[in-house]
Design goal:
Blueprint (H helix, E strand, L loop, with lengths): L2 H9 L14 H14 L6 H15 L3 H17 L4 H10 L2 H16 L6 H13 L4 H14 L6
């Protein structure tokens, strides 16, 4: 009996093929990291959800229907995840340094979408930036660009 068949017999439903042994695709890995920032705000606002959607639409040029599915799956995977490694390792394997800095900047954009980044959001962006091997100077520059794009003054 295959592992997937065994798990299906226990739960009555088959896990999505590839979820157990294969790393997530690039779009899902990116979406989960953005959703993690969104979920870190206990006062989740529509502006943060829209910032996630905007970032994913810009990065992957996908239809609204596919975007809805991607965000829904990312939210589920975010709730189930124990750490960020499965997602950051995909980005480390597939993105250039400049692209990884861009993802960090998009994470900051999600954090600042409601006008302020709370300590939990800042912690997540910082941890992910470290896992993506983003140098501190580039991390700070990404944060400042996101703040400026949100119309916030440094202070």
């Amino acid at each position: 009996m295959k592992l997937l068949d065994f798990l299906e017999s226990l739960t009555g439903t088959a896990p999505e093929r590839g979820e157990l042994a294969n790393p997530p695709p690039l779009d899902l890995a990116t979406a989960v990291l953005l959703v993690e920032v969104m979920r870190a705000d206990p006062d989740l606002q529509s502006a943060e959800r829209e910032a996630v959607r905007r970032a994913l639409r810009q990065r992957f040029a996908i239809s609204d229907r596919d975007l809805d599915s991607l965000v829904e799956l990312a939210e589920r995977r975010s709730r189930e995840a124990n750490d960020f490694f499965a997602f950051t390792s995909v980005l480390n394997d597939r993105l250039t340094q400049e692209e990884k800095v861009s993802v960090v900047e998009q994470m900051w954009q999600v954090a600042y979408a409601d006008g302020d980044a709370n300590p939990w959001e800042r912690n997540i962006v910082s941890r992910v930036a470290g896992l993506l091997h983003v140098p501190h100077g580039e991390y700070i520059a990404a944060r400042l660009r996101a703040r400026a794009a949100a119309g916030l003054q440094e202070g």
